[in-house]
Write a structure and sequence with these properties.
Layout lengths: L1 H6 L2 H8 L3 H15 L4 E4 L2 E4 L1 H28 L6 E7 L1 H18 L3 E7 L6 H7 L5 E5 L11 E15 L10 E4 L5 H8 L7 E5 L2 H9 L5 E4 L10 E4 L7 E8 L1 H4 L2 H13 L2
Parallel strand pairs: 3-4, 3-5, 7-8
Antiparallel strand pairs: 1-2, 5-11, 6-9, 6-10, 6-11
Helix pairs in contact: 2-3, 5-10
Length: 279
Amino acid sequence: MVAVAETGGFSSAAGKLGLTQSAVSHSVRGSERKIGAVLFERGRTGARPTPAGETAVAYARRVLRLLDIMTAEARGAAGSGAAEGPLRIAAFRSAALHLLPPALERLRARHPGIEPRVRIVREVGRGAAGEVADGKADMAITTLDGSAPLPTGLVASRLFEEPYSLVHAAGHAAPRTLPLVDWAENCGSYTRGWWAAQDWIPEATVEAEDDGAVLALVAGGHGMAIMPALSLTGAPESVVVSALGPDRPSRTIGFVATPESAASAVVRALVRELRAAAP
């Protein structure tokens, strides 16, 4: 099922798996009979998952990953007990750029058998947590108090609170009068109430692709921005970061995993390093 979904067809899945097309087709049809639903739409251009198929494939990925975890945990118990094996991580951009590197450096030093693989995911819609729900990641570094509910069957844990600040180019006498530079992933339900109460914040006149582009535009004197702390790591000297007062907004950064992955040695090892690296 996973191979058909990822390659887009039975023939290509067969090639990937080293099987015949008829064997792959027979296997999928057997799964469809057991589940009682059509999992793939077949056509001239290939095969694509139905809504039932998307759900089944997500669980299939998680089952395959559980087999990997079982092997790694059993080997660790039989040997030195060291955590080892692949660790698939989904994270939003600023976490991947500024939080993960020091944590992964310490992780590799302490657990050289762990093989981290990082995927950067936009923190909109289902975000990084959706990668875990779909079986594409073992854990996600994500915002926990946004408007989108946590996908069913996942567990979450807080890492730290990330405050927001006003950012503007140095030398401007009235930075709050500048036009607003923003990007799609910014803010959300965790700042919406505070944002609505600030009559000095205009509608964004410049929309950037990500927080790095926002910071560059602000540094170039094209406006001001309201940004979370991770996005401001390593901000250039031409940028001034100003506090927004005691009622400033913040968002909760945490990690999300399935209960099985959260209990695995590789995830627990990374979580320890993330907590040590948290600001």
